[in-house]
Amino acid sequence: MSFNVPEKTVFGFLGPNGAGKSTTIKMIMDFIRPDTGKIHICGQSHREPLARKRVGFLPEHPYYYDNLTARELLDFLGKTADMPTSLIRSRGDALLERLQLADAADKLLRTYSKGMQQRAGFAAALLHDPDLLILDEPLSGLDPIGRHMIINLLMELKQAGKTIFFSSHILNDIERLCDSVAILNCGRLLFCDSLATCTGGTSTLEEAFVTMITNDDLSQ
Amino acid sequence: MNTIFPLAILTLKEGLRHRMLHGIAILALLMTGASTLIPSLFMYDLGKVAIDIGLSTITMSGMLIIFFLAINIIGKDLDKKTIYMVLATSTSRAQYILGKFLGVCLLLLASFLFLSCLLFVTVCVLNATLPHNVIANFSWTTLLYAQLFLFLELVLIASVVFFFMSFCSSFYIALILSGSIYLIGTGIESVQLALAAKEIKTSAGLSALMQWIKWIFPNLSAFDLKTLAAYGLPVHHETLALTFAYWFFYTTLLLLCTIFFFNRRELS
Q1: A19: in domain
Q2: Is B91 in Cβ contact with A76 (below 8 Å)?
Q3: In terms of C-beta density within 10 A (0-12 exposed, 13-18 middle, 19 or more buried), how is residue B184 classed?
Q4: Which residues of B touch A70 (CB under 8 A)?
Q5: What is the mean pLDDT of chain A?
Q6: H or E, element range at A72
Q7: Percentage of chain B surpassing pLDDT 90?
Q8: B95–A68 C-beta distance less than 8 A
Q9: Assigned domain for A2 exists
Q10: What is the ipTM metric for this complex?
């Protein structure tokens, strides 16, 4: 597969279960290695650790160190991003406040609910003010209030000109947020273009998605 | 270092708050308590028994930290994918290994310093209360060397664990392999001495195999200065310098191999 995520856009990465979305994201983040091909992040090879300096990442199932607090987690991430201590503290506090975790900032992460862990993951991904956000199923595990909060946050980041690449099963959210989409099935890229081209201006994203996947399955 | 040191501190904090460490600390305190009580059951060599128990407590606590706590912390990182959070930053895999290793070493150092202080107090109390039982030629310097080389041995064993963790799919396998290396490493010198003294009849092939084993596996007996400390025997500085060089090269080589394998590992 080959695709390009334009700067300052929100790019939806869609596909049924087992299509290869998380595998692709793991390759982009250099957790697993592709057999062939190249991946570039902001012009640098993804194998270069410095290429990830401008990236904020949220895994599908965020799991952090049990015996640390959210504040300690952010302190660590800020230090690895070369942020000054005062900036780590001010930006960390603002993010924890924004994600309604300020009261739990000094509690151990093992006491967090799944939704709180997901929101702590957002704070961790956004701490160093990255230009590119790579989010794997960012809305899974969140209650309606949490989802609303994160969607609003993503809207704000979009307005701020950040590039957001995220995978999701929830097509309504993709339709609300994304400028472009890529559709994947069984490791093959079926479509990669603007959302308007995908829906053709007449159908919904869900209809276009189901049609594409069904046709692909029938052709195999 | 901007990544390695924060990661080491993170590992230290994670380790210090781990329930397993609290259990190890209680066990170590019980053994230290025993080292002040048990000697009074002996007619003589009280100082020797106290030093033996004290140094053994440091070894046992270090081993428990390495084989259970450190393996658990690193294994969880890989199993639960906490490692994604670290590697999603600009941290390289080599920095990850070095940071985690340094963190485990700091954890070992914390345990070592705490238990060494307790041993120091125990020896002082015994020397003050039972002065006629003080070891002839007792030397604080020898005791300090014994403690220092014990710490170096623990660091070397930690590097063996990291080496196996870098490519083993399960941390139980890494635990078994590292434990086997420890057993071989502690026994290798005795076998060599027995062979040299011709106490055991061997074929030429077996002798050649023993030579290879001697070069491949770490000789952990070289770091064991308990007997010298317990009997107040003199230390040979040349031997200590050679042992230190051996430790440095063996640990560095293992860490380089760990980084080599870990760089090629799929973190799926």
Answers
A1: yes
A2: no
A3: middle
A4: none
A5: 90
A6: helix A70-80
A7: 43
A8: no
A9: no
A10: 0.90
